[in-house]
Amino acid sequence: MASANENKTMKIINPTYIYLDNTFQENLAVAFNAEIQAIDTLENLQTQYPEASVEDQAENSVLYPGFINTHVHLEFSKNRTTLEYGSFMPWLDSVIKNREDLVSECDNEVMMEACKQMLNSGVTTFGAISSFGTELEVCTKTPQKVLFFNELIGSQAATADMLYGDFLERLNESKNCVDDGIIPAIAIHSPYSVHPIVTQRAIALAKQEELPLSAHFLESQAEREWLTKETGGFLNFFQNFFSTSKAVTTVEEFMHSLNQVPAHLTHAVQATTEELNFLNEKGHSIAHCPRSNRLLGCGRLAIETLIENNMPFTTATDGLSSNNTLSILDELRAALMLHHSVPIEELASVLIKSITSTPAEIFSLNSGIIEIGKDADFAFLTLPDKPSSLESIALHTILHTNKVDKVYISGNIVS
Ligand code: BEZ
Ligand code: FE2
Q: Is residue 154 in contact with ligand 1, taking CB distance under 6 Å?
């Protein structure tokens, strides 16, 4: 029996359809305060919680758990037309050329607008990859929960200690913001850009402190060529910037260094099936960023291989440095059009999972699923008309939703 206090703040939401256990059901409502308290018919919930307020209802509405965007770079939110798209190395050159201007022009207002764009698409938790820590304040102020991935970058042994010290300071600052919705985490920029000693230290720390870990991995053909043959576009790059023709690690070495702790690996477009299977066996997962991969000429991640092998993957927007919007629904639409070999309703269903229960499981979040005891984080949206079947709701959601109607985080309406 709920306490009087719980009854006071209790709300009931009664959608036409509710996303439960990766399927859609009718005639069910949810009672919640900060957490989900009960799932039952509206009548039963009103009997159980007579003082609960019943939220607005709309025809053809769908209640989802809040969406989770696992990979975004807020620090590059100022970019629209500055960076060069089409091929990875020219894009990277353009990032290096414009980075200072882009980052200095990216003030809190710009980053808050980026958070708002995610919120409008139903995102209640996101993973912010932070190179400098400049977005920490915005991440504490945005209503969303934030996996704050303090990033390590630097391939040169000479600067390793200094960069690691700076990383530890940023990590500590993020640890001070737990009460503001920050979940401190670690990101290794990539195998080619982080010295293996530093990679080892970061992994050991992630293991010891049970911090979420992520890394960009085998994003481009150039990265694969560099790590396997020390040739290709990165040869020029490393010769020019670091006077070296040697890669700091190999694909094998990097993958094995991850054995100790599960990592969320972003892109993996150029990983072989064997490599993906190895990573899957070791408990790792993939962040799939289809629009970023397309814009940077990196190719297509064969998600059908991941689906076949039950390898967990999330779908994520990446930053505005390699995307035109941060809407997670725009991202799912792109994925829906890209992966033409997967039957379309099955694909739509897997994609919804990739922004709800899958990321929640990967990062042990108390959300991503509508279940008693989970945080009352919801994305509430309305389809334009009655869906032809329950099985088609994921597909129609992805096709037709530009903006969700309402977003709840820990039971509060935030948009
Ligand atoms: C580095 O800092 O060593 C680095 C950064 C970007 C690409 C490659 C290397
Ligand atoms: Fe990224």
A: yes
